[in-house]
Amino acid sequence: MHIAVAGNIGSGKTTLTALLSKHFDWEPHFESVEDNPYLHSFYEDMQRWSFNLQIYFLNNRFRQIVKIRESGRKVIQDRTIYEDAHIFAPNLHEMNLMATRDFDNYRSLFDLMSTFIKPPDLLIYLRASVPTLVRQIQKRGRDYEESIRLDYLKQLNNRYEEWIESYDLGKKLIINVDSMDFTTNPDDLGFVIDRINADLHGLF
């Protein structure tokens, strides 16, 4: 079984992935952040490094999905390959931070990869407003994220909403996290767990 957690930067994907992994005894697959060789450079010069970063993520997540399917284990994944292709890469292209030829090359590669993969059995989307995203980003204090622009987060949020509304590859669960705190409020985490059980097992 493959569960995936989707959401904008700072929405709480990694935190929820870790908590659900512990509760359900699912194997967690986290997004490659600390060992990403392009992330710092990207936030310093988005136009120069956008294509490199997106190709790195595409390759990394494709490898994750292959391993997940081959393992036969119950896995929860922090961010999906679809978010890169439908949100981050096209947003960079629209902002003139990725050249058209690079974007076309990227999309061609994603289209090919997508024929070899299956979507998650359940997609959990964390919906968050920009103020919530900013608060969460500041709270975790990653140096390279200090330069993230508000208009960049807002445009990503708009794309996320368009994508999740049209997502029809499998089951999806939308959680509004603006008034939630999974780490300190057991009731908030319990609410999410109940929703997941209902979607996976038909429990009400």
Short characterization:
The protein is of the alpha/beta class and 204 residues long.
Q: Which architecture would the CATH scheme give at its second level?
A: 3-Layer(aba) Sandwich
The level 1 CATH classification is Alpha Beta
Strand residue percentage: 5-15%
| Element string (H = helix, E = strand) | EHEHHEHHEHHEH
Name the strands of the widest sheet in spatial order.
2-3-1-4-5
What radius of gyration results from the CA coordinates? 17 Å
The percent of residues in helical segments reads 55-70%
Name of the CATH superfamily: P-loop containing nucleotide triphosphate hydrolases
Mean pLDDT across every amino acid position: 91
Overall geometric form: globular
Low-confidence stretches: none
Largest sheet: 5 strands, parallel
Structural write-up:
By secondary structure, the chain is α/β, with parallel strands linked by helices. It has a single domain, classed as 3-Layer(aba) Sandwich (Rossmann fold). The chain is built from eight helices and five strands, in the order βαβααβααβααβα. Strands 2-3-1-4-5 form a five-stranded parallel beta sheet, sandwiched between helices. Helix 4 packs antiparallel against helix 5 and helix 4 crosses helix 7. It is globular.
